[in-house]
Amino acid sequence: MLDFLPSVTNYKQTIERAAAQAGFAQVGFGRVKRLNDREDFYAQWLGQGRHGEMSYLAREPERRFDPRAIDRRFKSVVSLLWPYAPPSPPAVDWRAELRGRIAAYALGPDYHDYVLKGARVVSAAIESLCPGAVTRTYVDTGPVFEREWGARARLGWFGKNTMLLTRERGSYFFLAEVFTDLEFDSTDAPYREHCGTCRQCLDLCPTQALEDGYVMEPRKCISYLTIENRGPIPRELRAKVGMWLFGCDICQEVCPWNPGAAEPGDEDLMPRLVELMALDDFTFSRRFSKSAIKRAKRRGLLRNAAVVLGNTGNRDAVAALTQVLEREPEALVRSHAAWALGELGGRSARHALERARERDIDALVVEEARAGLERGVA
Ligand code: SF4
Ligand code: SF4
To answer: Which residues are catalytically annotated?
Structure first.
């Protein structure tokens, strides 16, 4: 009877074929085991508060270390790699044109939707190979250490920029996982790491968020500050945010394992910040409802846009920032607009800050206006 059942090798080949048809470029198979070696590191990391406002990272640690806490029948993980091609930044002067950059992964439709759809095709292939098989699919959607499982499934190595890296594709890809009760002939031998003596990402990160030892301080990372962080961007880091409106790709762009720049992308890839500052709730949701950018929410995106406008050094932004300071309902956005006006300076900015200092009802905005005037740049 057993002779007629597909072999494990055939299972793997069928799953690989289904994954390729669904759009995945690589598939790895790993054994589900407790991630013992990460527990101490992670407990220390959380204890230091490095997760910032990402409180979900502190929830359900048991499930993160051992997926069998989600379902004790899990025996294997099928780790799936979905590549994306980052377009080169458009050849525009972001300061002159008042534009901001978006991390490559967030350009275009929200990856959660189409990568999850692809991962479900792989789950369905497993279930049809082996009716009754247990499967559970994740795309950045649960308490799963995706890069750890990708490394254990030998897709690549954990780089100094804390991304998973492959020799073939660098780090420009999304990960998905299918946990299952099937068993595969996977090896526990780690993928060899290829960072070697390179330190490009550590040395060129504008906020020094990357530390020796493959560690990141998310609270200093522009991706965290512009996406997950719901409150103010710390003043001392705002200038270092530079032109990044949503996310940051610097530690990927400088990595020698990533492909070099192609033709400059379309200039629409760098939105005009003054237009963004005029979005209300309705127009924000109409423009970004199918994009990963919605994660920042309107108030977060406008906060970021104000910071980038302040970093342009271009006083053409003063009128838009003044309008925000006078009409925007969100104090978070007004306070960053006040900071930006303080950076840009000039008579009009000074008047706007004086009015805000006298009239604004929010203490944070009043404080930013006062600080902007005291910086003496107005
Ligand atoms: S995403 Fe940007 S800020 Fe964050 S670690 Fe990489 S280079 Fe630094
Ligand atoms: S830039 Fe260098 S050190 Fe950083 S991840 Fe890439 S290869 Fe590793």
So the answer is: 140
pTM for this entry: 0.93
255 lines ligand 1 (CB under 6 A): no
**Each residue's pLDDT tens digit, 42-85:** 888 888 888 888 877 777 778 888 999 999 999 999 999 999 98
Domain assignment of residue 110, yes or no: yes
Residue that finishes a domain, picked among 151, 180, 209: 180
User: For residue 138, what are the β-bridge partners?
Assistant: 177
Closest CA to 352 of 329, 320, 330, 376: 320
Check whether residue 170 and residue 208 sit in a common domain: no
Ligand lying nearest the CA atom of residue 248: 1
Q: Among residues 306, 301, 308, 307, which one has the least CA distance to residue 281?
A: 301
Question: Can you give the residue range of the structural domain that contains 104?
Answer: 2-180
pLDDT in tens, 174-222: 999 999 999 998 777 778 899 999 999 999 999 999 999 898 999 999 9
Q: How far is the CA of 209 from the centre of ligand 1 (A)?
A: 6
Ligand nearest to the CA of 216: 1
Atom 8, ligand 2: residue with shortest CA distance? 195
